[in-house]
Write a structure and sequence with these properties.
Elements: H1 7-30, H2 50-58, H3 61-70, H4 82-94, E1 100-101, E2 107-108, H5 110-115, H6 122-131, H7 143-155, H8 160-168, H9 174-191, H10 196-209, E3 219-224, H11 231-245, E4 251-256, H12 266-270, H13 283-290, E5 294-299, H14 306-318, E6 320-322, E7 329-331, E8 336-341, H15 345-350, H16 359-365, H17 378-384, E9 388-391, H18 397-414, E10 420-423, H19 425-433, H20 444-462, H21 465-470, E11 473-478, E12 491-495, H22 499-508, E13 513-517, H23 519-524, E14 534-538, H24 552-564, E15 571-574, E16 589-591, H25 593-598, H26 600-618, E17 621-632, E18 635-647, H27 651-656, H28 677-691, H29 694-698, E19 706-710, H30 717-728, E20 732-736, H31 737-740, H32 747-762, E21 765-770, H33 786-801, E22 806-812, E23 831-833, H34 839-853, H35 859-868, H36 874-892, H37 900-912, H38 923-943, E24 947-953, E25 963-968, H39 977-994, H40 1008-1023, H41 1046-1073, H42 1075-1088, E26 1090-1092, H43 1093-1099
Parallel strand pairs: 3-8, 3-9, 4-5, 5-8, 10-11, 11-18, 12-13, 12-14, 14-15, 15-16, 19-22, 19-23, 20-21, 21-22
Antiparallel strand pairs: 1-2, 6-7, 17-18, 24-25, 24-26
Helix pairs in contact: 1-2, 1-4, 2-4, 3-7, 9-10, 9-11, 14-17, 18-19, 19-26, 28-30, 32-33, 34-35, 36-37, 38-39, 38-42, 39-40, 39-41, 40-41
Length: about 1100
């Protein structure tokens, strides 16, 4: 068989011809002759050079395999001289991406033009075979024969390049393989921090690919994990390690699949086709043709269009892909193909503690947000399974700090600065804080650039040219105030640590509480490990002479159990040597005992940075700061000061809106709320939770999801909620339950879910739900909306379980109507009762009002107003003051100040209602009412002198022709039998007093309400309180299940009548004795219509 007829040799000649044309064009461009992207059919061929032959061999893996087998190697492990790899770069430069027009104005690609005149290549190739290889072309019988000729030529010493190629590829031994693997792992572990398991998996597959050639790809990997954890960095470092450390000439190429999301995007990879004008070669196929040794990264493969994924299947199956434009075949047999994906993170998180998930099974079912179909096709997942799946774990604070230090070191080595730069560990922390709420390794270098640029900007603004001239060193530092919120009494758990180390840490870091225990004791406390600031486990030592040193397997098992409950707490191991074992990948860091003894403050900073990052992630915070410059001789210290951690809000949430969100921070503070001392004391505790939730977390205490404010209407529940929001400076969602209630099935539940979803997006925040009983009433009542209550309960449970920084403040006037499940532990389990304002609170209110509006009130008048407003809520007091101000503006036109009379009138109207002016009364009717109320007032003062009587009126208000207001001193004990009888007598005194009006009328119905009230009091005394002397201390109300006999029922009715009649007789006797005072009081009421406390006291002054 002729050399030109064997398919393997034909493929080699094809690659050699391409190399020859590229070399010829490169020479032409080097000699400054016209060149560029011209028609290659017009180019001259040149003599065959050794670099062309080796370049063609690199592109023909089947032929290279024959050479590699002689050296106990695979084609992918052959090392070529550096000039060969540079020649491939020349090929990338020479071969154009896009097609061009030939001499006949036909659009053609470079390859098609070149191979139209390929026959001319024979006149330079055949002399090369004959004179350098010593054989006629038609005498070459097989690829093996051709390789023997090349090896003979390389061994002859006639070619320096082939001699170098031979020297670079001695027969491989097991020791060589071991050295290569160790070198590769050492490099990758130093570049990709915190992902030891991923690095070891890559190295294991590198070992396999270096021994066996599968003919498709050198290796296929699927990297899964959250964004910014090192997936791209590992792929890039892998390529650099193979190229720099082993001389394999690997190139790194990244394809972001986000750019391949439309249905025609596959053309970007495989070529647009020759039938298009100005068509292009495929980005992927052309790259592999120029660089057959490549690490190719398809980043976020789930974002690619299905047509793009479909176009890759043949490449994954066969290791080849045909460019649609040039019809050239790209050989992937020496490539390393890596796919990355962010899919499945929710599934992996949910499986924590349940066992390991199969990555490919997760990818097969994972969906993009808002999509009902799996993101990856089953065909792709099946092909990915021929390679390895590697799950990347989230990066710990320790790892992120180490990566920041590494990136800064790379930055200093690559950059140029006119002064020395000195960075502290605090600056590395600042690089992470500046990326909150989602710090990652990827953004470190960009943040470093921004921080340095800002520092230089302030430096140039504040310093003179003379000062700048002196500076030789810049030191960047993060102010200590960044850690104020996370400092305190941290507990650190020391497991199996030597006593000397424990004592040293206690001495050097006294701020922390160090708890040293054995490994066995630690496993008993594993459920409490999340309350610690950090956990240190010593390996290779015993805690004391009496205990044995734990084996590594025992430590690994313990670490697995502790990690299940760590919940973000750093797990650190103290060991003298790096532990190279997958079992220990759950550790955040391995620290040497010597390092810990020398620099214990590094441990302190790690704890503080971890706590700050935890808070920033949980509360979706961003980091802002100012620069402070301090010049000390030739050193300029630049500090980041005035740190501010504020909450981020997503743009999608801004567009969707937040129900009930107050656009401005509530201005009210707890100090502005008058009275409610008990409620404010309870809310001070709540404020402590909201301002520093980590205090509860350290003690492993879950913060309640919220509280419920109870109390009568108008007592300040809404104002208290706003005050809490104002004190904490948190967003405040004021939810009106009337807007939540929906007539649509499950409509109320849907609205509740929307509110909590919005709140989580803007967290930390406060949700205030007024009149919560409207949506969370008892589910056992008729017509209850159980779906609404269930949705509310589910969300409240979710807040506590996930430690969501959303706090719910609910308010209700009817706590007895709430579903009991709402008040269970972990939900709204902190009831705060809002009382009506007491005397001191009411007096304080009037003092504040008088000061605000310039009203002069004496201490006696303040006391009177406080007294007459007993039983009024804060809202009623506010109403009275508004009414007073409006009256003053209308009546006085603002010319005069407020008067005491106006204040009294306003308070009375707010408390008891405005007089009904439309109800006309004759003088006789008015006189009768005056004597009626005078009777109430007189008997009240005579029988109940310890009761205050702040107001009496005969003006019709609120369906009453008149009334007398009495208040019992709040400091007195329970109601006595004498008081009840006095109240009955007072009630009956109205009708009895009417007889003294001398109007000659008959008894009327005006006393109906009085008689009803008196009867109720008598019934309570007999039937509820057991105060009747005849019936005895038995309450018939408690005997509802026992049917009373007729005689017993008659006795109850008889005794009630006795109590009422006795009161009537007592009232009549008192009125007969005090007729003169009765006439005096009635006359005053008739004349003034209303009497206030001081006026009433004057009437009784001489009595």
């Amino acid at each position: 068989m002729s050399l030109y007829q064997h398919p393997v040799l034909e493929a080699f000649l094809r690659q050699l011809y391409i190399a020859n044309l590229v070399d010829a064009e490169a020479v032409m461009q080097y000699t400054k002759q016209p060149g560029g992207h011209r028609d290659p059919s017009t180019w001259d061929v040149i003599g065959i050079e050794d670099v062309q032959v080796l370049s063609a061999l690199l592109s023909t893996p089947v032929l290279a395999e024959l050479w590699a087998k002689r050296l106990r190697r695979t084609p992918a492990t052959l090392v070529y001289p550096a000039v060969v790899y540079r020649f491939r770069e020349t090929m990338d430069t020479i071969i154009p991406q896009r097609s061009f027009q030939d001499k006949t104005d036909t659009t053609k690609d470079w390859f098609r033009c070149a191979f139209e005149v390929a026959e001319r290549f024979k006149r330079v190739f055949e002399p090369f075979v004959e004179f350098k290889l010593g054989c006629k072309c038609n005498a070459v019988t097989s690829p093996e024969h051709f390789i023997d000729l090349l090896i003979q030529y390389a061994s002859s010493g006639d070619s320096k390049l082939f001699a170098e190629f031979i020297a670079l590829n001695p027969p491989r031994s097991l020791a060589d393989i071991k050295a290569h693997i160790e070198q590769l792992e050492h490099y990758l572990q130093g570049r990709v921090l915190g992902q030891s398991h991923a690095v070891r998996t890559v190295v294991r597959h590198e070992l396999a690919s270096g021994c066996i050639d599968n003919g498709r790809q050198r290796a296929i990997f699927t990297f899964v994990g959250p964004s910014g954890v090192g997936k791209t960095e590992l792929a890039r470092s892998y390529a650099h390690a193979l190229s720099d450390a082993t001389g394999s000439g690997y190139r790194f190429r990244e394809f972001s699949m986000e750019a391949y999301a439309d249905d025609k995007a596959y053309m970007k990879l495989t070529g647009s086709g020759s039938y298009y004008t100005d068509s292009a070669l495929g980005d992927l196929t052309r790259h592999v043709q120029c660089y057959p040794r490549s690490v190719i990264l398809f980043d976020e493969i789930e974002k690619a269009h299905p047509s793009v994924i479909q176009s890759m299947l043949s490449m994954l199956d066969s290791g080849r892909m045909t460019d649609i434009t040039s019809n050239e075949v790209a050989d992937f047999s020496q490539t390393i193909v890596i796919f990355t994906s962010n899919l499945g993170q929710a599934e992996f998180n949910k499986a924590t503690g349940m066992g390991e998930l199969d990555v490919f099974d997760v990818l097969r079912q994972a969906k993009r947000p808002g999509d009902s179909q799996p993101a990856l096709t089953p065909e792709l997942v099946d092909r990915l399974k021929s390679g390895a799946a590697i799950r990347f774990k989230p990066l710990s604070a320790s790892t992120l700090l180490a990566i920041a230090e590494l990136r800064v070191r790379d930055y200093l080595q690559a950059g140029f600065s006119v002064v020395d730069l000195d960075f502290t560990v605090d600056f590395y922390a600042a690089l992470l804080f500046a990326q909150l709420p989602k710090p990652s390794a990827r953004g470190i270098q960009g943040v470093a650039n921004n921080l340095l640029a800002g520092a230089k900007r302030d430096m140039f603004r504040q310093l003179t040219s003379a000062q700048l001239q002196q500076i030789t060193q810049l030191q960047l530092h993060l102010d200590e105030s960044c850690y104020e919120r996370v400092r305190g009494s941290h507990k650190v758990l020391l497991i199996n640590c030597p006593a000397a180390l424990v004592a040293h840490l206690q001495q050097q870091l006294p701020r922390y509480e160090w708890q040293a225990i054995s490994l066995v004791a630690a496993l008993e406390l594993k459920h409490q490990v999340s309350q610690y600031a950090a956990v240190l486990i010593a390996a290779g030592v015993s805690a004391d002479s009496s205990s044995a040193t734990p084996e590594l397997a025992e430590l690994a098992a313990a670490i697995r159990q502790l990690h299940r409950f760590a919940d973000g707490v750093p797990l650190l191991m103290v060991a003298e040597h790096t532990i190279d074992d997958d079992e220990f990948d759950l550790l955040d860091e391995v620290i040497s005992a010597a390092s810990l003894l020398a620099t214990p403050t590094r441990l302190q900073r790690l704890i503080e940075v971890n706590a700050r990052l935890q808070i920033g992630r949980r509360q979706e915070q961003r980091f802002d700061y100012d620069y402070h410059l301090q010049l000390d001789s030739s050193q300029l210290k630049i500090s980041l000061v005035n740190p501010k951690f504020t909450t981020n809000v997503s743009s999608s949430r801004v567009i969707a809106g937040v129900p009930g969100l107050l656009r401005e921070r509530p201005s009210v503070r707890l100090a502005d709320v008058v009275g409610l001392q008990r409620a404010k004391a309870e809310l001070q505790r709540v404020l402590g939770w909201l301002k520093q939730p980590e205090l509860l977390q350290r003690r492993q205490l879950a913060m309640p999801a919220g509280i419920v404010l109870t109390g009568p209407p108008g007592t300040g529940k809404t104002m208290l909620a706003k005050a809490v929001a104002g004190e904490t400076e948190l967003p405040f969602l004021n939810i009106n339950t009337h807007d939540l209630v929906s007539s649509v099935q499950h409509g109320t539940a849907t609205k509740i879910q929307q509110i909590f979803s919005a709140a989580r997006d803007i967290a930390p925040c406060i949700i205030f739900i007024d009149e919560i009983d409207m949506i969370a009433g008892r589910r056992d009542r008729a017509g209850a909306d159980t779906s609404a209550v269930n949705t509310l309960l589910t969300n409240l449970d979710g807040l506590q379980a996930a430690a969501e920084p959303v706090f719910v403040i609910a308010a209700t006037n009817y706590p007895e109507r709430l579903d009991p499940a709402l008040l269970r532990a972990g939900r709204l389990d902190e009831p705060v009762h809002c009382d009506l304002p007491d005397r001191a609170a009411r007096q304080a209110f009037f003092e504040m009002f008088a000061h605000r509006y310039g009203v002069q009130l004496s201490s006696e008048q303040l006391a009177d107003f406080a007294e007459m407003t007993q039983g009024m809520s804060g809202a009623q007091l506010e109403k009275a003051m508004r009414l007073c101000m409006l009256t003053e503006q209308v009546e006085q036109h603002g010319a005069a100040g407020l008067t005491i009379a106006q204040l009294r009138k306003a308070v009375t109207a707010a408390h008891y209602g405005a007089p009904l002016t439309s109800l006309g009364q004759s003088p006789q009717e008015k006189k009768l009412v005056a004597y009626h109320e005078a009777g109430h007032l007189l008997v009240s003062r005579l029988l109940m002198p310890h009761y205050d009587v702040p107001f009496a009126t005969i003006e019709p208000r609120n369906n009453a022709l008149g009334f007398v207001v009495t208040h019992k001193d709040a400091t007195l004990a329970a109601t006595t039998m004498a008081e009840i009888k006095a109240k009955i007598a007072m009630s009956m005194a109205g009708r009895e007093a009417e007889a003294y009006a001398d109007l000659g009328g008959e008894a009327n119905t005006g006393a109906a309400s009085d008689i009803s009230y008196a009867t109720q009091l008598a019934e309570a005394a007999v039937c509820q309180y057991g105060l009747d002397e005849v019936f005895g201390p038995v309450t018939p109300a408690a005997l509802q299940q026992v049917k009373l006999t007729g005689a017993q029922a008659d006795l109850v009715a008889e005794r009630i009548k006795f109590w009422v009649t006795e009161g009537q007789q007592q009232a009549a006797a008192l009125l007969a004795q005090q007729q003169e005072l009765l006439h005096k009081i009635a006359a005053a009421l008739y004349r003034n219509e209303s009497l206030y406390g001081d006026e009433i006291d004057e009437l009784f002054a001489d009595a």
